Amino acid sequence: MQFSYNALVRKADAYLREQRAANRFLRAILPLRLFDEHLWLWERRSVAVGLGWGVAWAIAPVPLQTIFAALCSLWRRGNIPVSVAACWVSFPGYQVFAWPLQWWVGSSILNAMGIGSRTTWETIHDAAVLLVDGWDAVLPALQGIELPLLAAELLLGCAVTCVLAGLGAYGLTLLVWRPKKA
Fold it and tell me: How confident is the model at residue 2 (pLDDT cuts 50, 70, 90)?
């Protein structure tokens, strides 16, 4: 007997539809849109959309990334298991590398527009080293920095890198997964 993911999904879908029809509580908590087969089947477009949302939310500095990825996949009809898996694959501690990169991207954009905080890598490094001693030691090092602009740089960088990573994952999936010739 050969295992088929799509056949398993179709059987589970039929079972859940039957249970939902018979149970008023399940009708209330399981919207019919959740049963769209594109959200669960292994198809080129839905997998690309699910992976794009999953990767985008995986590098976002927010809690509950998995829930956001699943909701966005539900909204744009992407594969929900793929979006959830993409969030779970991101390794713990990636923030050590991602946040400075995201800040740098946002800083570069705002500095090019002439409104950046003018914070340098050295300032960020010095503040990170002083953080070991506690926030009381960090605050004097950040005296000349406009903190709202520093936060704006980080948020802008996060938004830009998340969008670019998501679009990159989406595009690469479509590029690699060629449709079968008839």
Answer: low
Buried b vs exposed e over 26-45: b needs ≥16 C-beta within 10 Å?
Answer: eeeeeeeeeeeebbbbeeeb
Give me the helices (H) in the chain, please.
5-22, 24-29, 44-58, 65-76, 80-89, 95-112, 121-130, 135-141, 147-176
CA 27 to chain centre: 29
Q: For the whole model, what pTM was predicted?
A: 0.76
pLDDT higher at 42 or 125: 42
Beta-carbon contacts of 153 under 8 Å, excluding residues fewer than 6 positions away, are: 103, 106, 107, 109, 110, 116, 117, 119
Contacts of 31 (CB under 8 A, 6+ apart): none
| pLDDT tens digits along 7-35 | 777 777 778 778 878 888 777 766 766 77
Alpha-carbon span 21 to 172, nearest angstrom: 39
Contact 71, 42 (CB under 8 A): no
CA 103: distance to chain centroid? 17
